[in-house]
Amino acid sequence: MAATTAFVIVGAGLAGAKAAQTLREEGFDGPIVLLGEENERPYERPPLSKGYLLGKDERDTVYVHPSQWYAEHDVDLRLGATVTAIDPSGHEVALADGSRLGYAKLLLTTGSSPRRLPVPGADLDGVHYLRRLADSDRIKKSFESASRIAVIGAGWIGLETAAAARTAGLEVTVLEAAELPLLRVLGREVSQIFADLHTDHGVDLRFCVQVAEITGTGGRANGVLLADGSRIDADAVIVGVGITPNTQLATAAGLDVDNGIRVDAHLRTSHPHIYAAGDVASAFHPLLGKHIRVEHWANALNQPQTAAKAILGQDVTYDRVPYFFTDQYDLGMEYTGYVEPGGYDQVVFRGRTETREFIAFWLAESRVLAGMNVNVWDVTDPIRALVTSRHQIDPARLADPGVPLDDLLDRPDSTG
To answer: Is residue 284 a contact partner of residue 265, using CB atoms and an 8 Å limit?
Structure first.
């Protein structure tokens, strides 16, 4: 086929939309085609389990850009457009309607999909997964008619939907296979705080349980049967047991895939004209010295901006420290940094955990790996600076609210 100058982006979520925006902001005036499977224009996902689900945010607030933005910036946004294959040697993508589209550079922002629960009854009506705007609409509607909700999985999505359901006045039971919520992410010291939060708000937390079946009548879910024979009645069931990256296109195209599409620090895949960003990308992080895949909003917001600049030939790398946030009841939290499960040797608290106003720091050999501020604000920048400095910090000074966080960087050698 004839050579093309088009930049094609597969995946019309936040990452794809921000990449298109960055290409235009950086002066690219050639064709941009943004392909999305859904019939909704690009939107942000955090409101789906937070403000929008709670009814605090209007639907229009979830979208990345106003509807007219794409035409105004000459971005060819194609919704309901499913890409079925990539031909790297021919610089083409194939679409479900039989058409083919050529590209000069290709960016994959295909995101991830919820893990499905492999038990009988998982396909009954009233069993919900939360990933798309339509999912949030269905869950919100279920809150109007249900009185009892069962949530399977005590990760971020599970806890946020549990909080939304309790706020809506429903009885909520959370079922989790581990001993505590968020145990792999936060460790035992901090996980207990989230367990206490939900218990204090009337959630029935069940830990160390295995789901055997989702029961139903007339094709609709009415409860959850556990492996020990006990049963939880529920008018609706929300499943939040993790997500998996959508790597099928990349795998079939012969790109390197390992827990996501492997990309270098420039977000380039194993093929020089194909890039990846967002949930689907396992990117080499210069600070950490390893590939990591980050499933959070800030990554989908910022990583594609680097990818777009790299596509344009700029010498840029993505080295931002991971960041995410949650809002549950009266608890607001921001987390900055990266810790492998069990990859720390100490947790230091600054403030009062009993009032849920504190900062928690995860340390290894007195170096701050991550910090989480709970109902304490305007500290993300100094926490990020502590993480990126890689300096050894005196844990006693780190725990002392009387020592400004910025001062800890002024005296990095205070351990000795």
So the answer is: yes
Counting as low any pLDDT under 50, the low residues of the chain are: 1-2, 412-416
Longest alpha-carbon distance in the chain? 69
- Closest residue by Cα to residue 115 from 165, 157, 150: 157
Instruction: Give me the phi and psi of 368, to 5 degrees please.
Output: -80, 120
Which run of H or E residues covers position 16? Answer: helix 14-25
Q: How confident is the model at residue 1, as a pLDDT?
A: 43
| H helical segments located in 230-379 | 248-252, 297-311
Residue closest to 92 by CA, chosen among 249, 278, 261, 314 = 249
Residue-wise DSSP of 41-87: PPB-SHHHHTHHHHT-S-GGGGBSS-TTHHHHTTEEEEET--EEEEE
In the CATH scheme, what is the code of domain 127-241? 3.50.50.60
Count, in order, helices (H) and strands (E) of the chain: 12, 26
Domain spanning 330-410: CATH 3.30.390.30: yes
- H/E stretch holding 234: none
Which SS3 state, helix, strand or coil, does residue 127 take?
A: strand
Superfamily of domain 7-113+244-311: FAD/NAD(P)-binding domain (3.50.50.60)
Q: In what order do the strands lie in the sheet with 171-176?
A: 127-129, 236-239, 148-152, 171-176, 204-207
Please give the pLDDT value at position 4.
83
User: What is the reported pTM?
Assistant: 0.95
